[in-house]
Amino acid sequence: MKNLILKLDHSNSIQTSNEEVKIQKFVSSISPSNFIKLLKFADNKVNPRIATVNKITKSIHETLETSPELFWFKSKGILIATENCEVLERNRLRISLDNLDYEGIMDGGHNTFAIAIYIIEKLFDVRLKKWDECKQFWEENYDEIEKRFNENVEDFKFSIPVEIITPTAEEGALLEFYDFISEICSARNNNVQLKETAKGNQVGYYDYLKEILDEEFDIIWKTGGSGQIKSEDVISLASLSFIFLKEKGLLPDDIKSLNKISVYSQKSKCVDFFNEVMSHSEISEEVKGKYILKNEAVKSALNLTKGILHFFDRMYLEFPTLYHKAAPGKFGRISAVDNKKKSKVPYYTTNELSDYKYSYGFFYPLISGVTSLMEYDERNNEVYWKVNPKNLDLGTLDLTQYVELIRMVNFDPQKIGKGAAFYNESESIFDKVNN
Fold it and tell me: Which residues make Cβ contacts (< 8 Å) with residue 22, sequence separation at least 6?
């Protein structure tokens, strides 16, 4: 069990809510030596962002280097969440840090990261740029960090503001803590314009997607996190199956429809749509501030996402060939196409390279057309592929009319990706697959 005793620099008096919320907080500061102990146990999984070296951390580093005595005034410090907090003598608190979904550093990740890499740099002359690297270094070298710090304690004269949020001793307080902690965490991070994807990730909207995709796809779910694929790109494509459900009347009536063109041109709108679906009481159950997907039709629809991502990569590789087949002109001669650079597929499902580098707008309507390959089984309350586009023989697709439309808009990928006629034609193309 991860229990940590923190020695506070100031009074450990408890502040409770005038509105009778069953959550309390301590506001104080800690020394660098207590910070070293804190970081041994605390993580920032509860925080919707992951800190990296940037202007903020560099500014903090400069303060610690040139005017450490002002850090307590200039910094908001660190916000810590804990399920259990016991008040001890001599301004000490015993806190728990076991449940990483609800306990840990919920705000002040950049402060934590900046202080940690500052200490590492001073003691070891090692420069780290990512939170995961920093945390790993801390775990692997904790005893040596503590030893070297104690030998050079006079070099670290600054106080770190801390705020600790924890349930009261009242009945039902822990459940109230679970219900509110994600909302509090998102609100505290709003001062940096936290993305809707980060907020959605925080409350569990994407947990089922992560469950089915993370083994194969390297997706960035948290702001500042590592990975190769933006979560909003995945969420917008996953929204295609929700568009299918909405068109079939299988989503609650109070959820607004989403136009397929938004999947290409308005990813933020797709994220809002996805989040609205996942937060609906008929779709998910809210437990301890997290939304747990319960609707079987929605689950089965999301299961199609992997096929869509594979199809996207296949289309990027094969669209130039399909274009050549449908028209006598050369794809590489289009001004918006770079025929001198090979390029990777966007979702990394294969190491095969495209012979061209070009805008996805050329074929985004075709990606959206795969809703015509979806089918709903009312008996099993399940959405499935009539033909999985991952395995579809693309040579059977007739793109003659689609390519003619491309010519009509003067080969402009923006007009293709935003043109309703292309989406209508794409649905017709895939309607013919089973006929």
Answer: 167, 168, 170, 172, 173, 176, 177
| Angle at CA of residue 430, ends 429 and 432, nearest 5° | 75
pTM over 0.70? The answer is no
Q: Count CB neighbours of 435 within 10 A.
A: 4
138 shares a domain with 107: yes
Taking Cα atoms as reference points, which of 218, 255, 217 lies closest to residue 239?
Answer: 255
Full domain range(s) for residue 148: 3-194
- Measure the CA–CA gap between 29 and 7, rounded to whole angstroms: 9
Kindly state whether residues 203 and 318 are assigned to the same domain.
no
Residue 85 has pLDDT above 80, yes or no: yes
- Whole-angstrom CA distances from 142 to 37, 139, 344 are 9, 5, 40
Q: What percent of the chain has pLDDT over 90?
A: 66
| Residues 221, 347: Cα–Cα separation, whole Å | 15
Query: In this predicted structure, what is the pLDDT of residue 6?
Result: 93
How many Å apart are CA 361 and CA 372, to the nearest integer? 20
Q: With beta carbons less than 8 A apart as the criterion, state whether 356 and 339 touch.
A: yes
Query: What are the distances in angstroms from CA 68 to CA 85, 157, 193?
Result: 29, 6, 28
